[in-house]
Every structure is written in structure tokens, then in C-alpha cells.
Amino acid sequence: MTHARDERSALCDLFDRLGPDAPTLCTGWSTYDLAAHLVLRERRPDAMPGIAVKALAGHTASVQNALKARHPYPELVGLVRRPGGVYGLLPFLDDAVNTMEFFVHHEDVRRAQPGWSPRELPADLERIIWKRVASGARLMLRKAPVGVVLRRSGGGVALGGPRGGARVEVTGPAAELLMFCFGRQRHARVELTGDPEAAERLRGAPLGM
């Protein structure tokens, strides 16, 4: 098993346990909506551009709703559980592309439920996550209103946001920094230091890919 497969399996187990109407951190989406999104992402390449391009978002939303109409929730979860499209044919690509995707969405469901707590992750997964955070910080933080210093607990620094002006330091484990950079700032267990107003602006900024 790869980390991508582990996160996929754990997320689907959670989907099964919570049912179709549980909340997620994806604004306005239930677990049913998130499952449909993940199926669309792997099995409907025609609708994928609308995930990132607003002008095409209408088609993507239409396809996602059609998937929900066509498939009962357990069927959609079953489709998520089995890598689809090119990821089903090339396991190495599934691991390269989907480890972060499924980790974040697994946490989107976990952290939307009461009483959640951070997981203790395998050391190699923490290293992989930090590598992705460090290499992608500039992209993920491109909309940050202030300069950002990401400081990994245990060692490691990455920079993002504007190069001049106010700067906020964000400190925490690699997994928490990833959630922060993916736009889940208010659900990431991190410490922010710097000007309080700048820190609050950063907490509300539209971060992510």
C-alpha cells in the first residue's frame, strides 16, 4: 500500500461510517458532494478544468450534480475507493498526485466532525508532506496578503506571499502547515506570530492551489 492508497481507503471508511449528509470543511459540501467531486476528478476529465477555472465551473457543478443523481451514495464511495482513470492504470502516478489530495480531503471530513484531534503520522509521510509544502509554498501562498514564513516543528523553513511589507510566521508540524496552505487556516493547529492584524488577514485569505 502507498500513502495515497492508505488515505483513500481511510477516507472511504469514514465516508461509510458518517453517511451522505455529514459536514466537511469544503464550503457548502456534504460528504456526498465531496465523494462526487473525487469521482469527477478521476473519471470525468472533461469537467476537471472547472475545478480551477471559474468560467468553466458551471459545467463542473452540473457534472458533479449529475453524478449524485446517477449514483446512490454507497456507489459513489465505492468508485472513490478504486482509483479511476489514469490513476488506476499507473499506481506511481496515483501516489505522486493523490497523496496530498486525499490527505487533505480526509482531514476535511475528520476536522468537520466534533471532537477531532490531529493524527500521529508516519515519519516518512510527514517528510513527504513537508517536501510538498516547501516546494509548493509560493504557489499555495500566492494570494496571501502578507509575507509568510512557514516554520516546520523540528526543522525546516519555507517562504511565501509578498516579498515586502508585513510578515507572519506560521509554525507547526508539516501536516498542519499543509492544511493551512490549502486554505484550511482556521482548522489548522499552528501558531501565528507577528502583527495581529496581519495574522488575522492571513487567516481569512483564499489560500491554496
From TrEMBL:
Positions in coiled-coil regions: none
Protein name, UniProt field: TIGR03085 family protein
Source organism (scientific name): Nonomuraea phyllanthi
Classification of source organism: Bacteria, Bacillati, Actinomycetota, Actinomycetes, Streptosporangiales
